[in-house]
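**Backbone geometry record:**
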Amino acid sequence: MQFSEKYEYPAGFDQIWEMYADPEFHAQRLSAAQLEEATVNAHLDGDDLTVELRGQVSPEAIPAQVSRFVKGRLSLSLTETWHRTGSEATGRMTVDISGAPVKIGAELALTSPAAALTERAMTGDLKVSIPLLGPRLEKEAMRFIPMLVNAELSAAEAWLSSH
């Protein structure tokens, strides 16, 4: 199932790029996902940034209709790779959930249409590979994307107010 999200940060590109390179921002961003044993790594190498988020999915976070297809604990791995060119960056996000037939991938973009404004755009695909039920479960999973976007915006607000 295709998805597309676009949202704004009330800060210039350089400050948002600094925020994206800060593991503390991503740890706060991740808090809405209800992960246990979560780890965050952010590595900046020149104009390239790699962010890796890993953790165990809390059993309470698994919808009942999905839990019967899950064997044991689920491990989530989210990786974002970014390349900066001036006041813009493009990237790719992949989410793998071991133990669940779910794959998420998205193209990412950060642009700065104004001095104190940065936009993030995300266009991707969420796929649940369960015969007959896949499309219904994809629709159910799509409900979590706005929740995660809101968590990211809240984490950004907190980070920006303290930096």
Observations:
- Residues 21 and 42 are 6 Å apart (CA to CA).
- The mean pLDDT is 90.
